[in-house]
Amino acid sequence: MEKYDKNLIAIEESSVTIKGYRHRTTIPSRIFNFLDLDDKDKLRWILLKDGTIIIKKI
Questions:
Q1: Quick count: other Cβ atoms within 10 Å of Cβ 27?
Q2: pLDDT band with cut points at 50, 70 and 90 for residue 4
Q3: Can you tell me whether residue 45 is helix, strand or coil?
Q4: pLDDT of res. 22
Q5: Residue 2 confidence (pLDDT) above 90
Q6: What is the C-alpha separation between 30 and 10, in angstroms, rounded?
Q7: Could you tell me if 42 and 27 are in contact, meaning their C-beta atoms sit under 8 angstroms apart?
Q8: What span, in angstroms and rounded, lies between the C-alpha atoms of 36 and 43?
Q9: Domains along the sequence of the chain with CATH
Q10: Does the global pTM surpass 0.85?
Q11: Torsions phi, psi for 19 (to 5 deg)
């Protein structure tokens, strides 16, 4: 936990579902609500060399 900085709000987990060519995951409700997401909103997935993933509402 020490590697996370003091701006941390939540640590959540979700599962991946694979059906054919589709790969899906559920956004945990706490994060969904914090980002104030709505139907048709878009997310940007940013993958860093160390494996860190940043997901931003755009």
A1: 14
A2: low
A3: strand
A4: 94
A5: no
A6: 8
A7: no
A8: 12
A9: 16-57 (2.10.260)
A10: no
A11: -135, 105
Q: Euclidean distance between the first and final Cα of the chain, in Å? A: 28
Strands (E), the chain: 16-19, 22-25, 43-47, 53-57
Question: DSSP label at 13?
Answer: -
CB 40 within 8 A of CB 57: no
Q: Tens digits of per-residue pLDDT, 12-56?
A: 999 999 999 999 999 999 999 999 999 999 999 999 999 999 999
Tokens encoding 3: 């590697």
Q: Is the dihedral of CA 53, 16, 8, 55 positive or negative?
A: positive
Contacts of 45 (CB under 8 A, 6+ apart): 53, 54, 55
